[in-house]
Amino acid sequence: MKILIIEDEGDLRETIKESLLKEKYIVETAADFTSAFEKISIYDYDCILLDIMLPNGNGLDLLEELKKNGKSENVIIISAKNSLDDKVKGLALGADDYLTKPFHLAELNARINAVLRRKNFKGKDCIEVENVVLDIQERTLTIDNRNIHLNKKEFDILNYFLSNKNRLITKTALAEYVWGDHIDQADNFDFIYYQIKNLRKKLEESNAQIIIEMIYGIGYKLTEK
């Protein structure tokens, strides 16, 4: 799961980032309006933590941009402004939740989990396709009720494929999602090939009723057998 923190307070931004990294999320950050606008324009995120008061602009303007692109439903506003008007406007623009500073990290994590369940899994903690069950909270894979070990990247890749079943996934989109926006610095995508090769082997050996197909020269697609 990929999360963007848009927050200008450096200490708070890093505290939230470290907390979410411990929860095995992929985390990116933006400290001002300009960098945040660039990120939301280029990349997709499963959840966005959005501060209202930002250098060079207002977080609600970013929310309006997200709404135009149909991406506002996964936003949690985090702001010291306990203003009813801001809360109402943010929710009207499609934000999923509103959390007033200061807050406990445990509460923030609970709110994030709720957003992810509603957005990606229709309120459930697991993705089930045929005989495959991926538990998002526990980060486990079972096939025919047998536990299958996955490393972190294999889990993130399978999660992304299952969330986009029957859709063509380009190598670039997959790399950006699983490795973050620093993927731009990579020379090639060979590391993606090897991760997927290992994942496909594990699925095949476990008689999974899903398959990750390679679409030559473009990317991959997960389908049911």
UniProtKB/TrEMBL annotation:
One of its GO terms (molecular function) is transcription cis-regulatory region binding. Residues 124-224 bind DNA. PROSITE patterns: OMPR_PHOB, RESPONSE_REGULATORY. GO terms for biological process: regulation of DNA-templated transcription. Pfam families: Response_reg, Trans_reg_C. Keywords: DNA-binding, Phosphoprotein, Transcription, Transcription regulation, Two-component regulatory system. SMART domains: REC, Trans_reg_C. The keyword Transcription applies. GO terms for cellular component: cytosol; protein-DNA complex. The keyword DNA-binding applies. This is Response regulator transcription factor. It comes from Brumimicrobium glaciale.
